[in-house]
């Protein structure tokens, strides 16, 4: 027991006691504690084992940069590894488990790695696991995989909800310390729409750990008053527990709000995390500065922490770091801590200052100037330190050590859009570039040294923005007493006479010698050194270590930190859960579902549905006794061919084209002619891309002089609509043409089969005999004795006598019901997209299986359709390319196995009989395959070299995946009723 | 002759919370109108006479809407009118939290979105036409086939404000 | 790529509402030499800097737009309706 809770002081609510467990042991803390402060209050110093050497590690910081105190929180699907104890708010029932140790934190077998440390230095992966090559897969990789990583993710589903939300503001303030509060207040008072975000659960930032007096009240009280006023302003939104973690194009910021990460069982109707996308006209980063550790031997011993963290635990949480404390500092930060420790009655042995000229100090502690700590000892808990001063070594018994290597402004966000950090010799820190647009910086992130300066800076920045936006703002200032002004430190990268391992990157176990080795071996460039040593990787991304590493590399290479430079800063600032990134888009919300107006009709007929893009399409309709899908499909096909069937085709794209120039427009977007299409007729149309390949096909009907009803394939409904809009708006804006997507307005069904007309006549008021409503007739019809108007099209995708009827969607089910009832005596059946597909293959009709972006109209036997007289249409010019009419192109043909008992699959390749399966011998491939119940044989469509000229030729269909060779014959792609007799039955 | 029954796309009970209420609106008349912006006054006059309300839907395009079915809009030839009464479904969303709920799916800054304003935007993954009918009341118009999915999304977005 | 695009008709919208077609090139006349057609269909520059593209406000007003943006800085210089502007 070393650290402990003081009897008084701090901002925790001592009246509220919270029970929690760590590694199964029970502890208590108070409301307002973090997990880290509660552990320290209970004297729990050892909180984890390091990544590579499994060294005992303690809490190093009190914030987001924590590299050591990573824990697994929660259980079951709520298990969350690598949670920083310093950021985790304590709640009753919290279960925390330490990581990277076995069998226990106290006795850890992996610590043997320390003995192997000579072999585990920088680049050891590259050196150790090089040979023999055969060992890699069997031995090295499994070993590395097992050893790598920190916490373990759960395999259980996350039961909690997440969401994403947009926000808009004039000013986003990041950080709620003195500069952040003054920015938000100044802008808020001026009437700007302000969002103030802070990653901690309590707003106030560094003020919560400060003992100075501001405007006559304590710093936390000053902060509370500011927050209270902000809360009263309707134009200000406060976002505590919210980490702004990325700055993106257009001044959009990403932020993660931990809505319910501080309760044991989150309320089910609220998200646990909320991902904000904040479109800010402007932002002020008041993100503060991170204190750097010092790089001496054993600087990772539990009990050693940064001075700022120690001060925060002391002042904010009422936790003393130990019973005999020392401070090692390069700047004034250590003196502020020293003074607070002594005021709280904690024994301070010494302040060890690397400088000759520290400030005056009025406390009892011994001040040792021009001195360094070379080593800390104690293993699992600090017991002593070794000091060098005046050329002598001195050992001092202490159980806690605060250290301060200077401050690194938290400039990460300012660099997310490609800016480069600038080294300042004066500040001994990397600063944000000064040509930033859309964001400004205020407070210690700029290097500001005291509270009053931070308050003034924040207020000035905000007032400037307010006046830019036409609002007047009053500047804010604060009078501060009792603050230890923080002057820039003199960097102390390299400490001489160190005995033990001196850590630079605690999380990745990178120590000083690793960086030296990297420089020696030619990996001294900052980006190379990062990869070679792993410095700056993993969950903390080098928040504490990068600048120290740069300093050491600079020293090793004889350069300045400015010349070494930094690695690239990228979003996110801290890790983000996958849950938050996916938001509500999971399960049934992963993507929307589109339902046909005939969905319920299909469902009540027992449809099996298949995903087609976002649509649910009825695939087949199994009947009692049918066990395999093909039984249903075969029955449906045969029934349509002998009686009749009804199929839902509502998901076809439907576009209404109107306007004075509608005809010209339709004529230009199709390759075949439409100008002479009479009103009341439908025509099959081929739409090309500008490169001459087929884009889509469908029928378009002329319903009026300037009114067309176009259908597209289901898959290309949206792309075709966009394409037409492009043609109308960007290519030919001079044409008067209007496009409306009416896909959802109409329930459309195909009624096919010899009895289709008889059944349909039962609901259509007009005469639809062959004479009155011949093939390709298309017009509005009156239905149900004038109760409904629909559209009727005499088109066929099955080769049968067939119609498509479109009715207003809300009546779709009722009309389908009526047709099924009328058709019952005629043997009508519902058929699905599978039977539809079989019948179209039997008839050699193409779909996007054939229209795969490589085929021209001629390739699929439709070359004659292409207009030779039109001056222009999309695709005309490139279609005339010589190569596109070469006979050796892959062209459409049919393929059937010689033995109907043999099968093959779509995608299988065609080989000449006796030819080896090589690329050179490839003769094409199968695009569509089906079992034809009509022909009692497998049939297929294929794109084959010279296909149309090879009907009758025996070939081999080769499936390379299954290594199957099926003897087959090339044939006409129209397998059934080539004379189209049934169409006109 | 068999009976003709109209089936609404969305058969949902209203969702109710103190600060949010969500309900399908009657499937009446919804006409998509295209024409020159300059002729808007003529369109508005004709719509008014026909008992239809005009909502803007981008340049040169409007919806003419009513809760009553089968309304007709007679316009000169410079306009194109397409019946979408069955192709679109309207959902009413209202309550003090309505702006906050919509922000969960939509990037439109509702601060500047005045009463009477209308636009088309993405809510989650679904394109939706939104109109602010009152300070705390919106009409959401969506393609019929997406109506159920949008409803589910709105329900999720509203969850924290619903009485459950 | 920009996170927000200011549609001339709808105002500031997120990029998710748009689809990008690519370079905003002028379609040659039907009787233009085939070389011009080859360039139009197949030839693209890939500049570092200013670039004009066709964007479609698919989940908004459904207008085609010409967006002028900087491929390096991602700054959007201009965004206008495609019908109002012959591409350059």
UniProtKB/TrEMBL annotation, chain A:
<dbReference type="Pfam" id="PF17806">
    <property type="entry name" value="SO_alpha_A3"/>
</dbReference>
<dbReference type="InterPro" id="IPR006222">
    <property type="entry name" value="GCVT_N"/>
</dbReference>
<dbReference type="Pfam" id="PF01571">
    <property type="entry name" value="GCV_T"/>
</dbReference>
<feature type="domain" description="GCVT N-terminal">
    <location>
        <begin position="598"/>
        <end position="870"/>
    </location>
</feature>
<dbReference type="InterPro" id="IPR023753">
    <property type="entry name" value="FAD/NAD-binding_dom"/>
</dbReference>
<dbReference type="InterPro" id="IPR041117">
    <property type="entry name" value="SoxA_A3"/>
</dbReference>
<keyword id="KW-0560">Oxidoreductase</keyword>
<protein>
    <submittedName>
        <fullName>Sarcosine oxidase subunit alpha family protein</fullName>
    </submittedName>
</protein>
<feature type="domain" description="SoxA A3">
    <location>
        <begin position="500"/>
        <end position="582"/>
    </location>
</feature>
<dbReference type="InterPro" id="IPR028896">
    <property type="entry name" value="GcvT/YgfZ/DmdA"/>
</dbReference>
<feature type="domain" description="Aminomethyltransferase C-terminal">
    <location>
        <begin position="891"/>
        <end position="977"/>
    </location>
</feature>
<dbReference type="Pfam" id="PF13510">
    <property type="entry name" value="Fer2_4"/>
</dbReference>
<dbReference type="InterPro" id="IPR029043">
    <property type="entry name" value="GcvT/YgfZ_C"/>
</dbReference>
<comment type="similarity">
    <text>Belongs to the GcvT family.</text>
</comment>
<dbReference type="InterPro" id="IPR027266">
    <property type="entry name" value="TrmE/GcvT-like"/>
</dbReference>
<dbReference type="InterPro" id="IPR013977">
    <property type="entry name" value="GcvT_C"/>
</dbReference>
<feature type="domain" description="FAD/NAD(P)-binding">
    <location>
        <begin position="170"/>
        <end position="300"/>
    </location>
</feature>
<dbReference type="Pfam" id="PF08669">
    <property type="entry name" value="GCV_T_C"/>
</dbReference>
<dbReference type="InterPro" id="IPR036188">
    <property type="entry name" value="FAD/NAD-bd_sf"/>
</dbReference>
<dbReference type="Pfam" id="PF07992">
    <property type="entry name" value="Pyr_redox_2"/>
</dbReference>
<dbReference type="InterPro" id="IPR006277">
    <property type="entry name" value="Sarcosine_oxidase_asu"/>
</dbReference>
<dbReference type="InterPro" id="IPR042204">
    <property type="entry name" value="2Fe-2S-bd_N"/>
</dbReference>
Automatic annotation (TrEMBL), chain C:
<dbReference type="InterPro" id="IPR038561">
    <property type="entry name" value="SoxD_sf"/>
</dbReference>
<protein>
    <submittedName>
        <fullName>Sarcosine oxidase subunit delta</fullName>
    </submittedName>
</protein>
<dbReference type="InterPro" id="IPR006279">
    <property type="entry name" value="SoxD"/>
</dbReference>
<dbReference type="Pfam" id="PF04267">
    <property type="entry name" value="SoxD"/>
</dbReference>
């Amino acid at each position: 027991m070393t650290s402990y809770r003081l009897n008084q002081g701090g901002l925790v609510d001592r009246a509220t006691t919270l029970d929690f467990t760590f590694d199964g042991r029970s502890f208590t803390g108070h409301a307002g504690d973090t997990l880290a402060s509660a552990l320290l209050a209970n004297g729990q110093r050892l909180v984890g084992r390091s990544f590579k050497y499994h060294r005992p590690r303690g809490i190093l910081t009190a914030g987001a940069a924590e590299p050591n105190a990573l824990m697994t929180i929660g259980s079951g699907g709520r298990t969350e590894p690598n949670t920083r104890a310093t950021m985790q708010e304590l709640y009753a029932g919290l279960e925390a488990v330490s990581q990277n140790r076995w069998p226990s934190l106290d006795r850890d077998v992996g610590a043997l790695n320390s003995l192997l440390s000579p072999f585990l230095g920088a680049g050891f992966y590259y050196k150790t696991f090089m040979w023999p090559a055969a060992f890699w897969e069997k031995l090295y990789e499994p070993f590395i995989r097992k050893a790598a990583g920190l916490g373990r993710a759960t395999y259980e589903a996350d039961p909690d909800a997440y969401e994403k939300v947009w926000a808009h503001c004039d000013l986003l303030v990041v950080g709620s310390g003195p500069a952040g509060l003054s920015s938000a207040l100044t802008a808020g008072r001026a009437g700007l729409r302000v969002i103030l975000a802070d990653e901690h659960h309590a707003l106030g930032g560094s003020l919560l750990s400060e003992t100075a007096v501001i405007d006559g009240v304590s710093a936390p009280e000053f902060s509370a008053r500011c927050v209270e006023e902000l809360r009263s302003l309707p134009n200000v939104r406060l976002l505590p527990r919210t980490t702004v973690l990325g700055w993106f194009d257009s001044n959009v910021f990403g932020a993660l709000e931990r809505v319910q990460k501080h309760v044991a069982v989150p309320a089910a109707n609220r998200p646990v995390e909320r991902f904000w996308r904040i479109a800010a006209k402007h932002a002020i980063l008041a993100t503060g500065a991170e204190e750097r550790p010092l790089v001496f031997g054993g600087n990772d011993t539990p009990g050693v922490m940064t001075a700022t963290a120690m001060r925060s635990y002391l002042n904010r949480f009422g936790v003393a770091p130990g019973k005999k404390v020392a401070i090692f500092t390069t700047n004034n930060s250590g003196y502020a801590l020293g003074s607070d420790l002594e005021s709280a009655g904690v024994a301070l042995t010494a302040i060890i200052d690397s400088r000759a000229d520290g400030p005056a100090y009025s406390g009892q502690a011994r001040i040792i100037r021009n001195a360094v700590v070379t080593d800390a000892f104690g293993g699992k808990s600090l017991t002593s330190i070794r000091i060098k001063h005046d050329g002598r070594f001195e050992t001092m018994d202490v159980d806690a050590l605060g250290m301060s290597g200077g401050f690194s402004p938290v400039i990460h966000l300012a660099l997310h859009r490609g800016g480069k950090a600038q080294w300042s010799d004066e500040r001994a820190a990397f600063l944000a570039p000064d040509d930033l647009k859309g964001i400004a910086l205020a407070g210690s992130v700029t290097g500001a040294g005291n509270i009053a300066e931070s308050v003034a800076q924040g207020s000035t920045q905000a007032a400037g923005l307010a006046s830019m936006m036409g609002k007047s703002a009053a500047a804010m200032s604060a009078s501060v007493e009792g603050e230890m002004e923080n002057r820039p430190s003199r960097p102390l990268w390299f400490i001489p006479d160190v005995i033990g391992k001196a850590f630079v990157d605690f999380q990745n176990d990178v120590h000083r010698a690793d960086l030296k080795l990297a420089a020696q071996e030619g990996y001294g460039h900052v980006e190379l050194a990062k990869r070679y040593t792993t410095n700056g990787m993993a969950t903390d991304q080098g928040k504490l270590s990068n600048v120290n590493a740069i300093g050491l590399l600079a020293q090793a290479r004889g350069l300045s930190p400015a010349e070494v430079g930094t690695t690239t800063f990228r979003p996110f600032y801290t890790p983000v859960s996958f849950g938050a990134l996916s938001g509500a888009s999971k399960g049934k919300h992963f993507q929307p579902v589109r339902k046909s107006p005939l969905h319920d009709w299909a469902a009540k007929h027992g449809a099996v549905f298949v995903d087609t893009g976002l649509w649910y399409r009825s695939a087949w309709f199994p009947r009692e006794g049918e066990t395999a899908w093909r039984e249903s499909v075969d029955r449906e096909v045969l029934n349509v061919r002998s009686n009749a069937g009804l199929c839902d085709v509502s998901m076809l794209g439907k576009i209404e084209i109107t306007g004075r120039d509608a005809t010209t427009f339709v004529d230009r977007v199709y390759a075949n002619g439409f100008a002479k299409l009479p009103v009341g007729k439908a025509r099959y149309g081929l739409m090309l891309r500008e490169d001459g390949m087929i884009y889509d096909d469908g029928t378009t009907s002329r319903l009026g002089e300037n009114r067309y009803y176009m259908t597209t394939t289901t898959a290309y409904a949206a792309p075709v609509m966009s394409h037409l809009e492009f043609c109308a708006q960007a290519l030919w804006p001079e044409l008067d043409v209007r496009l409306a997507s009416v896909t959802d307005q109409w329930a459309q069904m195909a009624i096919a089969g010899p009895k289709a007309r008889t059944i349909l006549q039962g609901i259509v008021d007009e005469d639809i005999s062959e004479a009155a409503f011949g093939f390709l007739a298309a017009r509005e019809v009156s239905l149900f004795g004038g109760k409904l108007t629909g559209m009727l099209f005499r088109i066929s995708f099955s080769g049968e006598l067939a119609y498509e009827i479109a009715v207003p969607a809300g009546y779709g089910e009722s009309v389908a019901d009526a047709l099924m009832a009328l058709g019952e005596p005629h043997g009508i059946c519902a058929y699905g997209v599978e039977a539809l597909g079989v019948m179209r293959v039997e008839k050699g009709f193409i779909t996007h299986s054939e229209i795969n972006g490589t085929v021209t109209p001629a390739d699929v036997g439709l070359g004659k359709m292409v207009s030779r007289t039109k001056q222009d249409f999309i695709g005309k010019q490139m279609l005339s390319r010589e190569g596109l009419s070469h006979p050796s192109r892959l062209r459409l043909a049919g393929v059937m196995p010689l033995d109907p008992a043999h099968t093959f699959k779509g995608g299988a390749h065609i080989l000449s009989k006796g030819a080896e399966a090589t690329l050179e011998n490839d003769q094409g491939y199968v695009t569509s395959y089906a079992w034809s119940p009509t022909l009692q044989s497998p049939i297929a469509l294929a794109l084959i070299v010279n296909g149309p000229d090879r009907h009758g030729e025996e070939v081999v269909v080769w499936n390379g995946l299954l290594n199957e060779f099926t003897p087959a014959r090339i044939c006409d792609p129209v397998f059934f009723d080539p004379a189209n007799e049934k169409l006109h039955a | 002759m068999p009976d003709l029954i109209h089936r609404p796309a969305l058969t949902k009970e209203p969702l109710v919370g103190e600060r949010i209420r969500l309900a399908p609106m009657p499937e009446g008349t919804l006409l998509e109108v295209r024409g020159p912006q300059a002729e808007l006054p003529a369109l508005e006059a004709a719509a008014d006479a026909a008992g239809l309300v005009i909502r803007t839907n981008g340049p040169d395009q409007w919806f003419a809407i009513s809760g009553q079915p089968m309304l007709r809009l007679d316009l000169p030839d410079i306009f194109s009118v397409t019946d979408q009464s069955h192709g679109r479904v309207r959902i009413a969303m209202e309550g003090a939290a309505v702006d906050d709920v919509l922000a969960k799916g939509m990037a439109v800054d509702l601060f500047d979105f005045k009463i009477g304003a209308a636009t088309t935007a993405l809510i989650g993954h679904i394109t939706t036409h939104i109109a602010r009918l009152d300070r705390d009341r919106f009409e959401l118009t969506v393609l019929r086939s997406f109506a159920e999915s949008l409803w589910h999304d709105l329900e999720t977005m509203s969850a924290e404000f619903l009485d459950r | 790529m920009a996170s927000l695009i200011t549609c001339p008709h709808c105002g500031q919208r997120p990029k998710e509402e748009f689809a990008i077609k690519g370079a905003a090139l002028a379609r040659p006349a039907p009787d233009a030499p085939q070389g011009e057609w080859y360039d139009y269909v197949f030839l693209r520059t890939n500049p570092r800097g200013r670039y004009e593209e066709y964007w479609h406000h698919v989940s908004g007003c459904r207008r085609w737009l010409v967006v002028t943006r900087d491929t390096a800085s991602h700054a959007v210089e201009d965004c206008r309706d495609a019908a109002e502007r012959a591409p350059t």
